[in-house]
Specification:
Elements (H helix, E strand, L loop, with lengths): L2 H23 L8 E4 L2 E3 L1 H17 L4 E4 L11 E9 L1 H6 L5 E8 L2 E9 L4 E6 L4 E3 L2 E3 L11 E4 L9 H14 L2 E3 L4 H9 L5 E5 L3 H13 L3 E3 L12 E5 L1 H15 L1
Parallel strand pairs: 3-4, 10-11, 10-12
Antiparallel strand pairs: 1-2, 4-5, 5-6, 6-7, 7-8, 8-9, 12-14, 13-14
């Protein structure tokens, strides 16, 4: 498997889907928004983008299956599976807030081997493949070197339906607001993660996430020199719904703090 060649082809696929999304945003019809669940929105743009991605990726790797947010394919592969969020940041998209992305990861057995996140508003394509470095529009990227929490800019996401850990989360947020340089909430976990990868954010934490939210971004963070764990300090961040991503200097400190507040 030539992961590099495949990854660069996936970048083209992601950009194509991103162009479709950008074009639709120019004349988007709010009457076509649907509710999947509490505060969980979807539109024809998400679904059409996903169908385009599934078709294009099927052509690139016919034996692969799919783990997709909008259910346009239930095919599962024995060795390879694409993990796709066709529009990460749907609420932002619907509301005209320009932070949303296409996220594509490739699982080989149980490990992610390729990740692409195309952030549409800034026309930024972040990508990485197994055995390589991490890139943004052709330039190598690395996580930050920030070593103290007082100098760190943190990112997080707010739960929109699962509020079981809300009190603990608000305590953690309070700690971040008082101890760090700042805390940001963009509304797209994929974007948050690649911003850690390129050093814009120093760390990111969130719970109640799905595999398509984090598969590509978390892999790109790793290839950019960062570290990823779940809230218990383990490796179940892809399917476990909890994630902490950080540069190496802050990693142990961030993981211990999140565990203290959220366990």
């Amino acid at each position: 498997m030539d992961y590099q060649q495949l990854c660069l082809a996936v970048c083209d696929v992601a950009r194509s889907a991103g162009q479709f999304i950008a074009n639709e945003r120019a004349h988007f019809d709010l009457s076509k928004v649907e509710n999947k669940g509490l505060h969980d929105l979807v539109s024809y743009v998400d679904k059409t983008s996903e169908r385009q991605l599934v078709d294009a990726l099927q052509n690139l790797l016919p034996e692969a299956g799919f783990i997709v947010e909008e259910g346009t394919s239930d095919k599962r592969g024995e060795r390879f599976n694409w993990v796709i969020d066709p529009l990460d940041g749907t609420t932002n998209f619907i509301s005209g807030v320009p932070v949303y992305a296409v996220s594509i990861g490739l699982l080989e057995n149980d490990a992610v081997v390729l990740g692409v996140v195309y952030e549409i508003g800034r026309n930024e394509c972040f990508y990485a493949w197994k055995g390589g470095e991490a890139y943004l529009n052709g330039e190598t990227i690395h996580v930050s070197t920030t070593a103290t929490i007082s100098d760190a800019l943190l990112a997080t996401g707010f739960p929109y339906s699962n509020f079981k850990q809300l009190d603990n989360y608000l305590d953690l947020l309070k700690w971040g607001m008082t101890e760090a340089r700042g805390v940001r909430r963009l509304g797209s976990a994929a974007t948050d993660l690649v911003y850690v990868a390129c050093g814009r954010f120093d760390a990111f934490f969130e719970y109640d996430l799905k595999p398509w939210d984090v598969a590509a971004g978390a892999f790109i963070v790793k290839q950019a020199g960062g570290s990823i764990v779940d809230f218990s300090g383990g490796n179940n961040y892809l399917f476990g719904g909890e994630i902490v991503a950080s540069n190496p200097s802050l990693f142990m400190f961030m993981q211990e703090k999140v565990t203290t507040f959220m366990q």
